[in-house]
Amino acid sequence: MQESLQRVLGTPAVLLIGINAVVGGGVFLLPGQLAAEAGALSVFAYLAAGLLVMLMGLSYSEVGTMFSRTGGPVVYAQEAMGRTVGFSVGWMTWMTYLAGWSVLANGFVDYLSDLVPGIGGVARVLIIAGIIVILCLLNTLGVRLGSGVIQVFSVAKLVPLLVLVVAGLTFAGQTGNAGLGAVPVGAGGFLAAVSLTIFAFGGFEGTTVPSGEMRNPGRAISVAVLGTLGGVTVFYMLIQYASLRIQPGLAETGSPLTSVGAAMFTGGLALVTIGALISIFGTQSGVALTAPRNLYALSREGMLPDVLSRVHPRLATPVVATWVTGGLVLVLATTGTFEQLLLLNVAARLYQYLMVCLSAAILRLRRPEAERPFRLPLGPAIPAVAAVLSLALLVTGQDAVNLLAAAVALGIGLLLYIATRLAAARNGDRGDSESG
């Protein structure tokens, strides 16, 4: 099916989509756990994790510049390994977005409860539903409007975190900790801290999905992926360092950055809490733009029913995919538990990373002379190493419950895929080639 979306996204907008997707709720939750694992070394856990994820990002950057149609991972895997594998990657990518958006919706209400106590029951459901409807409406009205909201929140969410960094690098908040000395010494569980930290970088891959709406996808994707990962790595390191200096007891706190805000200065608690709300809402806005386009791409490629790729006749946005995604997020957010959704998100994301890195390596071997505006050195070596690392994280870092949840989600998707293919074969109006 021919691409019918408008190409209006410039490189700065795509870069902010990436930053917004990565700097989300995780940065408000991880500092305490990392401090408990590695103390001062937790600062460098971000650096190590950032370098590992950068290998995956390099793979995304190369393969992402080869194709200009909407879909990102689903397109790459389909071109490298065929339609069925492509569908599996696209479906699990969409599962990642569904679970992640549901977790963020609940996290937003949790932080809001710190400012407005007593939110629960019907009020909680109405707030979650209201946010989802607003974001779906914005992204129905146009990708320019949807990306504009992301850009505003991408900048706004950084302000309280920048205040925290400046405070940590200067007066440091705590009595007796006002000098520029070293942060507290930790227990040294560095590898455990690195494994936790890798998941704080999830979301960068969302920059590749709206390729069909980018003015120059070859440049935008490579700049956005690498710029996001590089910038966020440095920013995370500064946040962790500042947090340890402001709040030496960071490892003992249940809400790490909330305790940092309280120790920072009068009004710091409110500042950080509002910052968390802005950050989580901003990340939701990014998912609301990216997730429907992933579903749209699966339908456009003939892998799911035609109706999901229908575009608004005047606004040129994937209207059906947008509202189907929003509706399912509402169901998950109001019925699923945080732990279940998080397990699905993590396992599905690692599967996506593995298959995209494999796709980059395979395409290097199958299409060595294909145009690649961003070309890695050493042939398929870097994507191959990234694939091995992704597989190791998936196998060793996930327990049986995580993998079972991912397998069930994939099984449901494959049943829909088979039904769609059988219907297409009967109608004779969709492509039947396994190579896509």
Q: What would the keywords be for this entry?
A:
single chain, 436 residues, mainly alpha, Amino acid/polyamine transporter I, disordered C terminus
Tell me what the structure shows:
- The structure is a single chain.
- By secondary structure, the protein is mainly α.
- The protein has a single domain, classed as Amino acid/polyamine transporter I, CATH 1.20.1740.
- Helix content is 70%, strand content 0%.
- It is built from 15 helices and no strands.
- The protein has helices at residues 11-22, 30-38, 42-64, 73-81, 83-115, 121-141, 143-169, 190-197, 217-246, 256-264, 268-300, 319-335, 338-366, 381-396, 400-427.
- It is globular, with a radius of gyration of 21 Å.
- The relative contact order is 0.21.
- Residues 175-183 and 430-436 have low confidence and may be disordered.
CATH class bucket = Mainly Alpha
Mean of residue pLDDT? 78
Structural class: mainly alpha
Give helix % range. Answer: 55-70%
CATH topology: Amino acid/polyamine transporter I
Sketch the topology as an H/E string, one letter per element.
HHHHHHHHHHHHHHH
Q: Give start-end ranges of low-pLDDT stretches.
A: 175-183, 430-436
**What overall geometry do the principal axes of the alpha carbons give?**
globular
N→C terminal distance: 12 Å
Number of DSSP-assigned strands: 0
CATH superfamily: Amino acid/polyamine transporter I
Radius of gyration: 21 Å
The count of helical stretches stands at 15
How would a textbook summarize the main sheet? Answer: none
- Strand content is under 5%
Please give the domain count.
1
CATH architecture heading:
Up-down Bundle
